[in-house]
Amino acid sequence: MSKTAETAMPILEAKSLGIQFGGLKAVQDFNMAIYRGELVGLIGPNGAGKTTVFNMLTGVYQPTEGSFFLDGEKMNGKKPHQVVEAGIARTFQNIRLFKKLTAAENVKAAMNMHMKYGLFSALFRRKGYWEEEKEIQGKALELLELVRLGDKADVTAENLPYGQQRRLEIARALATGMKVLLLDEPAAGMNPTETAQLLDIIRLIREKLNISVLLIEHDMSLVMKICERIQVIDYGVTIASGTPEEIADNPRVIEAYLGKDEEEEDAC
To answer: Which PANTHER family match (predicted)?
Structure first.
């Protein structure tokens, strides 16, 4: 983390965040601070609680303990659309595109909260409507270019290959004008070539838009290459936090992923 980041206010901060479903504590005492422009990884074994954290940070679940803040503003109690309007956008493990809409239309759909023209202008196609539609179309094409889908603007989402659908979902999230982008397993199901392209695109997005990125990913090679810091959770509890090098050599992380050595268990 840079010295500037150390003294700045976090763009996204979770303090003692937790959630309980009945008698099960899915996540507890989760603390994290992400600074502007940082790219941070959140990893852990299957069922560790990673997506549950994302669901709390995006208003899908309401935390039963703790708080989280965006740019210093407390976000507890906000609904998903309010969280998006505030500046947190996400993608999902399972692709959730509008399959029958074109790539450009999918991206434009995420810009509705920024539209200024009213119902009257839209119904009667006044000058303000056409001017704003032209501007929105231009922004959509820019975002598609950013994720290397510039030549697919008029292709319906259902006719795009799987890897391109993943990138389209990222472009749609970017269209909200967010401050923090949450990526939930963006490389899931991709082949090595598609994963390498995705890695380059995530780097480009962060550098060009100067946004913060929180990434959940099971592809450890991608996480280690792209993330500046990594936080590891297991059974809903943070077990390690540090640089990729520190995480790779952490015994608790190795144990969480691979289990204890039989001889070690016998010794215990």
So the answer is: AMINO ACID ABC TRANSPORTER ATP-BINDING PROTEIN, CONSERVED COMPONENT OF ABC TRANSPORTER FOR NATURAL AMINO ACIDS-RELATED
